[in-house]
Amino acid sequence: LAKLDGKVALVTGGSRGIGEAVALRLAEDGADVVVTYLGSAERAEAVAAKITAMGRRGWAVRADSADPQEVRAVVAAVAERFGRLDILVNNAGAGFMGPIEDTGLADIDRVLETNVRGPYLFAQAAAAHLAEGGRIVTIGSCMAKRTAFAGGSLYATSKAATIGLSKALARELGPRGITVNVIHPGPIDTDMNPADGPGAEFQSGFTALGGFGRPSDIAATVAHLAGEDGRYITGAEIAVDGGFAV
Ligand code: NDP
C-alpha cells in the first residue's frame, strides 16, 4: 500500500514549477490529485495525464485563485467528483519585485488576491470537506522570513500572511485532527525564478548552501507533511531554503 492510497489532494497552480512537482510526488505516494491552473491548459493536462499514467486519478481544472467564485466552485467540484478531499496544497502564487513607488494598485490587488485571499478562500472551502487526518499545506516564501534585498515589499507582505493563516487555522482545525502548515521555499529553479536568470547568482549568495533548490525539494517536504509521518506537525513554518533565512 502506498502512503497516500485512497487520499484525494488538490494542488493549486499545479501546471508548472513547484506545484507540478508536488502534484506528481503526491500521486507517486498514492493520492489522486487535482491540479488547478490559470493559463497553461496544455501543461496542466500533461500533469494530469502523468498522474493517470501512474494509476491514480488525475484532473486538471482551470480556476483563477484570484476569483472567489472559481475557488469555491473547484473545491465543490473536487468533493463532488471524488466524494472527499484530504489534502489541500495552496501553491499558486504571483511573483512581484519592485520599489514601492513603482507598485501600482493593480499589482497590489493581483498579488494580494492570488497569494492571500485565494489561499484563505481555498482553506475555508476545503475545511468544510476535510475529515480527521486532513492536511493543509501552504507555500509561503523565505522572503516572509528575511528580506535580504530591496524590492520585495509587496511580495513579502503577501507571503507573511501565509504564516498567520497557517498558525491560526492550526489552532482552529486541530481539534478536528487536521494539520495546517506553511513551507517557506528559498530560491527554487522554476519559470518564476530560473536558476540561470539574471538575478540567480545574487539570490544564491544569500543562501548558506550557495545555490538554488529544485521543485522536488519542496515536494518532498509537502509529502512528509501530507502523510502519516506528519501527523504531529501543525502550525509549523518549515524552511526549505538552502539557509536563505538563517
Ligand atoms: P511558477 O510561476 O513557475 O508557477 C506558478 C503556478 O501557479 C503555475 O501553475 C500557474 O498556473 C499557477 N498560478 C499562478 N497564478 C495563478 C492564479 N491566479 N490562479 C491559478 N493558478 C495560478 O511558480 P513557482 O513554481 O516558482 O512558485 C510556486 C509557489 O512557490 C508560489 O506561491 C511562489 O510564490 C512560491 N515560491 C517560489 C519560489 C521560487 O524561487 N520559485 C521561492 C519562494 C516561494 P499557469 O501555469 O496556468 O500560469
From TrEMBL:
Pfam families recorded: adh_short_C2
Residues in coiled coil: none
Domain of life: Bacteria
GO molecular function terms noted in the UniProt entry: oxidoreductase activity
The enzyme's E.C. designation: 1.1.1.-
InterPro entries: NAD(P)-bd_dom_sf (IPR036291), SDR_fam (IPR002347)
Keywords: Oxidoreductase
Entry keyword Lyase: no
Similarity remark: Belongs to the short-chain dehydrogenases/reductases (SDR) family.
Protein name: SDR family NAD(P)-dependent oxidoreductase
Species whose genome carries this gene: Kitasatospora misakiensis
Source taxonomy: Bacteria, Bacillati, Actinomycetota, Actinomycetes, Kitasatosporales
